[in-house]
Amino acid sequence: MEKVRCLIIGSGPAGYTAAIYTGRANLSPVLYEGIQPGGQLTTTTEVENFPGYPDGVNGQEMMEDIRRQAERFGVDIRAAIATKCDLSERPYKFWFDNGDEVEAETVIICTGATAKYLGLSDETKYAGMGVSACATCDGFFYRKKVVAVVGGGDTACEEANYLAGLAKKVYLIVRKNYLRASQIMQDRVMSNPKIEVLFEHNATGLYGEEGVEGVHLVKRKGEADESHYDLPIDGFFLAIGHKPNSDIFKPWVKTDETGYIKLEGNTQSTGIPGVFAAGDVADPTYRQGVVAASAGCKAAIEAERYLTENNL
Ligand code: NDP
């Protein structure tokens, strides 16, 4: 097995920032890009809230910039996906889908999370053209427009409230006849005059020429009074949950009920000595690129200190 001092799994803002810091600290980091090189931001068209880009930047271009910055400090970036690991003792062992086998003294897990989608082909067709899974990222483009949010949990309510501060009108599309969100979030939604909750509704498709112009809805699906109609909207936001990409680590690290990796106190440590996590895989709360980048920085500094303290 190949031996490395610092292994980084994942290539979003957390992974690349960890690479910049560990590269500059001479740890000779090796980074595996994973399923989606560049991470979730590569699916966003315009990023306006990442510091350093006063005029905004295309998500793909921004991730290429951060990658180039990491390459400047000698990170070895490899295109493969980690399929299995053994974190029972140091050095930690990893297996990859291209056949690579690596033993690492420190590991920084930056595998991110994946937003859940309904699975409609129109979600792909209109990706970046009116379909989004992040109101904080893309809400600004819908000022004074009409949007719909799908979901009935805390995220959906939070995103509907956030969007109501920008948009002219927000529809909340809820499949059941009640909201699953906490009472306080429900109250905020129900008392906001800009939000209209469409209970017992499912979205079945989207339509529009250049981008989203409306959503096909079915009301009371499967009931005797089932009805279908189209609702004109400019933006379609999914808020039906995220799935943290933590599956291969679950036998070893602590996760919450959704699968987010739990961290020790105010650190990036997973609790396994020398194994850290950063970014969305360990962040059910903020899920922002800039927060992931800062977590990647913290994890890198902690990895460097761990190697020094243990003479590795
Ligand atoms: P949840 O799993 O709590 O809610 C998902 C929502 O999406 C549910 O209303 C669910 O409907 C709906 N949904 C799921 N799949 C579909 C589908 N295929 N079609 C239509 N609707 C669907 O996820 P959240 O992201 O909202 O929250 C995750 C966790 O994070 C929760 O514990 C939440 O409390 C927490 N959180 C807390 C916040 C806060 O306190 N400020 C903010 C955001 C999240 P159904 O109810 O019918 O299953």
What would you say about this model in short?
The chain has 312 residues and is of the alpha/beta class. Helix content is 24%, strand content 27%. Strands 1, 2, 5, 6, 7, 8 and 19 form a 7-stranded mixed beta sheet that branches. A 5-stranded parallel beta sheet has the order 10-17-11-12-13, covered by helices on one side.
Structure description:
This protein is an alpha/beta fold and 312 residues long. Helix content is 24%, strand content 27%. It has helices spanning 13-24, 59-72, 121-125, 135-138, 154-164, 183-190, 289-309, and strands at residues 2-9, 30-32, 46-47, 57-58, 76-78, 82-86, 92-96, 101-109, 113-115, 131-132, 146-150, 169-173, 195-198, 201-207, 214-219, 227-232, 235-238, 242-244, 275-277. The strands form five sheets. Strands 1, 2, 5, 6, 7, 8 and 19 form a seven-stranded mixed beta sheet that branches. A five-stranded parallel beta sheet has the order 10-17-11-12-13, with helices on one face. It has a three-stranded antiparallel beta sheet with strand order 14-15-16. Helix 1 links the parallel strand 1 and strand 2 (30-32). Helix 1 runs parallel beside helix 7 (289-309). The longest helix has 21 residues, at 289-309. The model has no long low-confidence stretch (mean pLDDT 96). Bound molecules: NADPH dihydro-nicotinamide-adenine-dinucleotide phosphate (NDP). Residues 118, 150-156, 158, 175-176, 180, 240-241, 284 line the site of NADPH dihydro-nicotinamide-adenine-dinucleotide phosphate. NADPH dihydro-nicotinamide-adenine-dinucleotide phosphate (NDP) binds at residues 118, 150-156, 158, 175-176, 180, 240-241, 284.
